[in-house]
Amino acid sequence: MKLFNTYSNQLEEFKTIEPNKVKMYVCGPTVYDYAHLGHARCYITWDVLYRYLKFKGYDVTYCRNVTDVDDKILKKAEKEGKTPDEVSQYWYKQFTNSMEKLNNLRPDVEPFATKTLGEMISIVKDLIAKGYAYEAGGDVYFRVKKFSNYGYLSKQPIDQLESGARIEVGELKEDPLDFALWKKDEKFGYNSPWGMGRPGWHIECSAMSRKYLGKTIDIHAGGADLIFPHHENEIAQSECANGCKFVNYWLHNGFVTINKEKMSKSLGNFLTIDDMLKNYDANTLRLFILTNHYRMPVEFSDEALASAQAGAKRLVNAKGVNNPDLDITTTPEYKAFCEAMDEDLNTSKALAVLFDLATRANKDEKDAYTILYKLGTTLGFTFEKAGVSKEALINAVSKISEVIGKPFGSVDEILELRKQARAEKNWDIADKIRIAFDECGILVKDTKDGTVLENK
Questions:
Q1: Longest CA–CA separation in the chain, Å
Q2: Within a 10 A sphere around the Cβ of 71, how many other Cβ atoms?
Q3: Burial of 453 (0-12, 13-18, 19+ CB in 10 A)
Q4: What dotted CATH number matches 279-378?
Q5: Residue 449 pLDDT grade (very low, low, confident, very high; cuts 50, 70, 90)
Q6: pLDDT tens-place string over residues 217-235
Q7: N or C, which end of the chain is more exposed by having fewer CB within 10 Å?
């Protein structure tokens, strides 16, 4: 299996630190608002990696943090007259609900920053003792120039970084490049050796990763926007504190763009996951994201979502029943799927295998549906056919009452009329009912067990 390592800027064969074990860390949300489609892209991508590693037989420990102490949370708390904890807990629940709706698996470990303060303070103390950090007026800063490899991950030479560095009002840095490990905060802060304060953003991930996964981990992943300064700073403080390599494989997903601009809260051009799920199901959003390679930007458009919706329906509506006892590891489809995924998670190639299986399943080819099901669930697709919504049924009853010119009290009455019309070869009435259902997004299927209604 080969993965593109941002640190080395090349594809590398994936080798674990411990045999068959993977320690994987993903930067989680700052919980102060709804998650948007950019977050969906990030967390679906790493959910697929997590699922695939487990599918390959690895024992994976997936850690994704929750940042519940941050300037944005404090501002929201002040604005709404709430405590920071009330704000973060509320939005964490919203985030968790959004991830569940997307069918993302829960991480094995999901630590909160405020519950890991002791580990953060311990690392900062070590960095001060080793001369890599200094206290200044209640703040603690990291000496960037003491770490010779600074800028290697983001491929930015130190002189280039210096030209853009500034010292803000109130900061007591020795050098404009130095970044905060601890911030003085007498109003919302926590006790520390340097007075009341709270952690800098970067130290949070270093502390949580070390506590739950160890000093050196296999994979650290996140959005490309985190490469600098967040991940660059994580490397500097972790390697200086721990005296060893921090991460073996750095993986980053590309942005979701609208009109070629990155989707973000700061630009105000974001679409929330919950709003998207009002019009599209989780399979559609997942397919939209996985059609593109994870490192490339994804341009959002209604046309792209419509195409993904049609593709998702094609997969889910494939005919067949899953045989859980079938060993698919010897099948050519398994081999083709794994070859695609082993090529730096080439999900578009993997999807081609799934669509071919869907076509063959609809031709009643033996085992095609089971292979489709097992490979598809590895990418996080759900194959349960969604029931027709109550709203759609009410709309259909109203529409058919109007078309037929007779009020109906229920769908059952309508289906009974259609059954009678078909028996009497009254195709005009039967077709009007079928077409009206169709226009309401409902498919009428006649089976040996009777008539069933499905979403189109």
A1: 92
A2: 14
A3: middle
A4: 1.20.120.640
A5: low
A6: 999 999 999 999 999 999 9
A7: C
Residue of 195, 200, 28 lying closest to 112 (CA atoms): 28
Written in H, E and C, the secondary structure of the chain is CEEEECCCCEEEECCCCECCEEEEEECCCECCCCCEHHHHHHHHHHHHHHHHHHHCCCEEEEEECEECCCHHHHHHHHHHCCCHHHHHHHHHHHHHHHHHHCCCCCCCECCEHHHCHHHHHHHHHHHHHCCCEEEECCEEEECHHHCCCCCCCCCCCHHHHHHHCCCCCCCCCCCCCCEEEEEECCCCCECCCCCCEEECHHHHHHHHHHHHHCCCEEEEEEEHHHHHHHHHHHHHHHHHHHCCCCEEEEEEECCEEECCEECCCCCCCCCEHHHHCCCCCHHHHHHHHHCCCCCCCEECCHHHHHHHHHHHHHHHCCCCCCCCCCCCCCCHHHHHHHHHHCECCCHHHHHHHHHHHHHHHCCCCCCHHHHHHHHHHHCCCCCCCCCCCHHHHHHHHHHHHHHHCCCCCCHHHHHHHHHHHHHCCCHHHHHHHHHHHHHCCEEEEEECCEEEEEEC
Report the amino acid identity of residue 278.
K
291-330 per-position pLDDT tens digit: 999 999 999 888 999 999 999 999 999 988 889 999 999 9
Domain with CATH 3.40.50.620 in the chain: 2-257
Burial of 345 (0-12, 13-18, 19+ CB in 10 A): buried
Q: Which residues of 297-314 are buried (b: 16+ CB within 10 A; e: fewer)?
A: bbebeeeebeebbebbbe
CATH number of 2-257: 3.40.50.620
Cα–Cα distances in Å, from 439 out to 184, 310, 397, 442?
Answer: 61, 16, 12, 7
Q: What is the pLDDT of residues 90-146, one digit of tens each?
A: 999 999 999 999 999 999 999 999 999 999 999 999 999 999 999 999 999 999 999
CATH 1.20.120.640 placement within the chain: 279-378
* Whole-structure pTM value: 0.86
Which tokens is 105 given? Answer: 């698996």
In single-letter form, the type of residue at position 72 comes to K
